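Record passed on underneath.
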Amino acid sequence: METIVVSPRGARRWRRGHPWIYRSDIEPSNAPPGVVRAEDASGTYLGQALWSPPSEISLRFLTTEESPVDGEWWHHRLAEALAIRDPENLDATGYRIVHAEGDGLPSLIVDRYGDIVVVQLLSAGLEAVRDHVLSAIDEIAKPKSMLLRNDASVRRHEDLPLEVDEVRGPIPEFVEAREGAVRYWVAAHTGQKTGGFLDQRENRMLMGGLAHGRALDLFTYQGLFALQMATPAESVVAVDSSAAALEVGAKNAELNDVHNVEWVEANVFDLLRAYEREGRQFDTIVLDPPAFARQRSAIDRALRGYKEINLRAMRILAPKGTIFSASCSFHIGRDRFFEMLISAASDSGRRLVLERTTSQSRDHPNVLTIPETGYLKAALLRAVD
């Protein structure tokens, strides 16, 4: 096994619980991508890691053990990841089996949608051991079909091709999954991420129990918040700028025999201004926008965007109404997110009570020493005026 030497700063980072070691903290090496042995400058063993020479994140630690990281190792670690999901009690057939660093399996994503699993291999080091990984997934998850969604742009930083490949198929254009009582279609080949947004599953089911009156689902994508709210609510307006996403949302409504959702193609910022001018009010509002800050330089602009949509949503919230507001921008931390909500509430002139805070679904583990694993934050607010 090749050995990579890590600087004192890199070694401290690993010992403090973060698995990423950057290129600047590694001595030059001609080792090919794959699993390597890592040592500090004194020759002290640190562990075994995925080695990605082209990447700024050159090492991603796997284990401090010295036993081989072979097919048996991957089988064991994947079995551990699946076991903590307790699939029989999830009340869903769409869920995440592996959350990369959150499960100690950096750069690996494995999602299940019914009988299929969708896999992402996001580093050159992981790509080098593809056969071991896919074999272990097959043995542990036992899917009917398996799809590689290796079209994430992050692979470009690893000098890896972008591709979508049916490991075992064929896989139809849409596959069916379920969360609670809601059934939905997943475009596994072409949908966002691996086909859907599983990190909001528990929050969607939460809103399915809390929605009332006239509901508004902003940035609905394919309508899963809207469909969860459709049963308790009188009506739901589901808004997105993507006609293709709304078309799938309408198909999901048909699948569930739901007829009280209005699908609206619009820019959310423009629509909220129009609703405010018209004096429209809603009893339940969901704000689940895409990441406004994909890099640190966008933080200030993103916070302005988040504040605007939250402020305008607060202004059209009916008395005693409920808002669920979320942000999936990693660079917008929890403190900044709540500062934004406080500022929006102040400017709205409304008295809003914080009912609860939430995060991503439990199948997306948030490791305290790895902030990148915990990107989603949300607040449930109730108007008391």
The domain at 3-63 is CATH 2.30.130.10 (Archaeosine Trna-guanine Transglycosylase; Chain: A, domain 4). The first strand starts at residue 3 and ends at 6.
